[in-house]
Amino acid sequence: MKKRLFALALSGAMLIGLLAGCGGGGTSGTPAPGTAAPETGAPETTAPAADGSVYYLNFKPEQDEQWQALAEAYTAETGVPVTVVTAASGQYETQLMAEMGKSEAPTLFQVNGPVGLANWKDYCYDLSGSALYGELTSDDFALKDADAVYGIAYVIETYGIIVNKALLEQAGHSMDEITDFAALKAVAEDITARKDELGFSAFTSAGMDGSSDWRFKTHLANLPIYYEYEAEGVHADAINGTYLDNYRAIWDLYINNATCAPAELSAKTGDDAVAEFVNGQAVFYQNGTWAYGDVSSLGDENLDMLPIYIGVDGEENQGLCTGSENYWCVNSQADPADIQATLDFLYWVVTSETGTTSLADDMGFVCPFRSAKPSTNYLVGIADQYIAAGKKSVDWCFPTMPSEEWKNGVGSALTAYAADQTDANWDGVVSAFVDGWATEYQLSQG
Amino acid sequence: MKSKRRSFANSPFWTALMTVVCVIYLYPIFMVFMNSLKVETAITTSGAFTLPTADTFAGLSNYANAIGAKGFLVSFGYTAFITVSSVVLILICCSMCAWYITRVNSAASKVMYYLCVFSMVVPFQMVMFTLSSLADKLRLNTPWNICIIYLGFGAGLAVFMFTGFMKTIPVEIEEAAMIDGCNPIQTYFKVVFPILRPTMVSVGILEAMWVWNDYLLPTLVLDIKKYRTISMLIQYFRGSYGRVEMGPMMACIMLTIFPIVVVYLLGQKHIIKGVVAGAVKG
Amino acid sequence: MEKALKRYFPIFVLPTLAAFIIGFLIPFVQGLYLSFCRFTTVGNAQVVGIGNYLKAFADSTFTYSFWFTVLFAAVSTVVINVLAFLVALLLTRAIKGTNVFRTIFFMPNLIGGIVLGYIWQILINCVLSLAGKPLLALNTAAGYWGLIILMAWQQIGYMMIIYIAGLQSVPGDLLEAAQIDGATSWQTLWKIKIPMVMSSITICVFLTLTNSFKLFDQNLALTKGEPSHTTEMLAYNIYNTFYARSGPQWKGIGQAKAVIFFVLVVAIGLIQLRATRSREVQQ
């Protein structure tokens, strides 16, 4: 009982630290007393440590080459060896787990938010005194626990519905008329009705294999969670599913107005969806700023983005979904010289000309650092326009999702439902969503 | 009647049937080969069976890419080195150990023998975590010394097979050599070693097949920052780089299979014999 | 001689023994111990008793993967052995080209599990997409049968070689005597050939069964356990428990699962050996 109370108290402390956005702290895992004490002590100097080295286990496969180049540039400049290893996609946790057990463990790794942090807190160096933290533009982008800063977001990403404007206009509609779910539905269904005449469909196929299913089981599922948190406050221990009917409505819209029959979705992949969108077979494609490289061949003038409306009151003011699930953490159990080398390297990445150019131009990142350059990513520009127009961005709540297991459960249920859209199958989704959440949350508390 | 059935049993019909079956049997490899010659955009999920056309033919560019940019040759070198060093080490150390076990009748020998037999049935998952952390602590995490791990984990089968064979060799020859003034080391290399040659080939082939194709042990033990074996490289292909680069991957698969097929065709007789010997004893 | 040899213990045995201790004995004993602990590294283990075992049995993915593995092992053992035996029967007849066929059938055996897995993933996904069926990542049934086809493709050649060796050792005069007595080829097969190659059958069944139970690489490469763990076999489930689940409790559970798995593999081997040995013909 005592332990329980302690956990509660600690969760509370975390909540306070994490109230920014809806990255709820209720999932603090099993806080091990004592081990959570922030480590301070390594002196902060800006001069590169002479004998340290950096080992970065990178999460984003699409930016592997750029990181390798950046590492090389840094080594050439300072002589500090930097190794970047990119985990195979979908294998990050596996690889991190295996590597952390080794004596030459990564000095720099990533967590995806509070849930990830709970598992790795013992390995997270307190960055609160670091020069890197000083560069951060807002505390919203720090992953905090009480006063300690355990993770720093390095890229802000935005997703929504990417639109092929040319096709939309060809169908006789415009961006301006779509301001809520009802309008989106009307446009989509109109396009579907005239599918043969127009020669294209409303949505790309919502492929449910591993290369694409996260768009729905994670990113789309974010919206009902976001609105529930908005209405009732962040409560990551259990979800009520208040907005699951809206989730069903948008999912129905996606799958019934797509380039293929709903039952065929399970045979589609992420690559198929990209191909359909780029080849002008569909108007709408749910994805984010990171997908710019895939869709840029359509030409910037033909691209736009829409918020994902799900039919909630007041959604005319809803913006795109913006957030981060990429937090840098420095391995506190690494050699002090390596920790210092890693901090120096990161500071260099976010402040130097070479580093900021690479982040903005080569990787197309929007970074929350003072010296960050504007991203050349066109979709990022669209996202900025939404914010400038006073729309309220939807926070990324999926870092509070209890586990990968939960996402997979929802994904399977969605696939089953797509194949046969009955109420019974939807109950399966609801059960995976609500009951699965409770179960997985319990398990994660171990 | 009987002679008729006989002739049917040996008729060209069966040869024809088996030919068809064999062609089907080889088709998967042929399919990968065809796809490895296509340009990236032509390798699609549903188009795996179509042959490359003039438009989609990529020549050997995928192979060039795999060898050049993807580090195939380096991985190939590591894998080859690990395989050769491990197999040589296993053959020498285990055969010596087996000789001692068969010829010295002590409790230690018995314990050692039964431990070896026991280790053969233990699945790798049982020791996967502890072995990799021990290997890391002892710095046995490079291609140059991972053979020690392979010797340890592969000793069971090798010692078992060698002792099985050794029991059938008459001890008299060795004793004669000893009486002529050879010390045990000389006796071993001059007398026992040559007799063991056929078993060496069998054990060598079995262990080589295991080490060459092994995935999990090198993945967990090797320092992935620097070294990747072929199996690891192909696995990395699949998962990394956001979208899978199918062309170079298919080329890699072909490049992996090719040397195996060549070695197999050259040493077919020994390989098949070795496998039978290993299986019958195992 | 024994005495002289004994003095050479450090040269003859020590290298192997040392490697064996590092590569097997210490990890094995540590593994046993850690299955009763909560740990994230070998160094920070705290004994928690049998809790890990209870949690392992309570983990539905583990029990599921157990039954999946049993079902897989049963079917693949039958399929592989029946087909391998048939091919061996055909190839022991005096038909043309037996050597070439033998070479071809054996070849897939030399290819590593990861590579095999990917080859078949491409092939099966192509068939599925042409048929308009869900791809492997979403299709438990296809994943199951895919694994069986893959295993059959890989192992038939190996088992065939063993059966051929067995069939060739059946004495010719025995077959001739049967023919003179008017036995049909069907009767010869059941009454003479099969009982005479019973030891080969024992070996092959034993090998396929343990291979199926220990299957890992192919499972990882072909299906990755998808969709949502429904094609996950025991070895892969254990691996995932260790390395894919985060949280300090999972390593201990994974190690407990590994011990259970180990006991299972040993038990199956023993039972199976005893069962078939008893039906062998005394030669």
Automatic annotation (TrEMBL), chain A:
SUPFAM superfamilies found in the cross-reference section: Periplasmic binding protein-like II
The keyword Signal belongs to this UniProt entry's keyword annotation: yes
InterPro entries associated with the record: Bact_solute-bd_prot1, SBP
Gene3D superfamilies: Periplasmic binding protein-like II (3.40.190.10)
Leader sequence residues: 1-20
Keywords (A to Z) from UniProt: Signal
Keyword Signal: yes
Protein's recorded name: ABC transporter substrate-binding protein
From TrEMBL, chain B:
Species whose genome carries this gene: Lawsonibacter hominis
Membrane topology (UniProt): Multi-pass membrane protein
Protein name listed in UniProt: Carbohydrate ABC transporter permease
Family, per entry: Belongs to the binding-protein-dependent transport system permease family.
Subcellular location: Cell membrane
Matches recorded under Pfam families: BPD_transp_1
GO cellular component, one term: plasma membrane
Domain ABC transmembrane type-1 positions: 76-267
PANTHER family assigned: ABC TRANSPORTER PERMEASE PROTEIN MG189-RELATED-RELATED, LACTOSE TRANSPORT SYSTEM PERMEASE PROTEIN LACG
Location, primary (coarse class): membrane
Annotated transmembrane regions: 12-34, 78-101, 113-131, 143-166, 187-212, 246-266
Classification via SUPFAM superfamilies: MetI-like
Keywords: Cell membrane, Membrane, Transmembrane, Transmembrane helix, Transport
GO-annotated biological processes: transmembrane transport
UniProt keyword annotation of Transmembrane present: yes
Automatic annotation (TrEMBL), chain C:
Bilayer-crossing regions: 12-33, 64-91, 103-124, 144-165, 194-213, 253-273
Keywords, comma-separated and alphabetical: Cell membrane, Membrane, Transmembrane, Transmembrane helix, Transport
Membrane topology: Multi-pass membrane protein
Subcellular localization: Cell membrane
Gene3D superfamilies assigned to the protein according to its UniProt record, in alphabetical order: MetI-like (1.10.3720.10)
Source superkingdom: Bacteria
CDD domains for this protein: TM_PBP2
Gene Ontology CC entries for this record: plasma membrane
Residues annotated as domain ABC transmembrane type-1: 66-272
GO biological process: transmembrane transport
Family the UniProt entry places it in: Belongs to the binding-protein-dependent transport system permease family.
PANTHER family given in the database record: ABC TRANSPORTER PERMEASE PROTEIN, INNER MEMBRANE ABC TRANSPORTER PERMEASE PROTEIN YCJO
Protein name: Sugar ABC transporter permease
Taxonomic source organism: Lawsonibacter hominis
Taxonomic lineage of the native organism: Bacteria, Bacillati, Bacillota, Clostridia, Eubacteriales
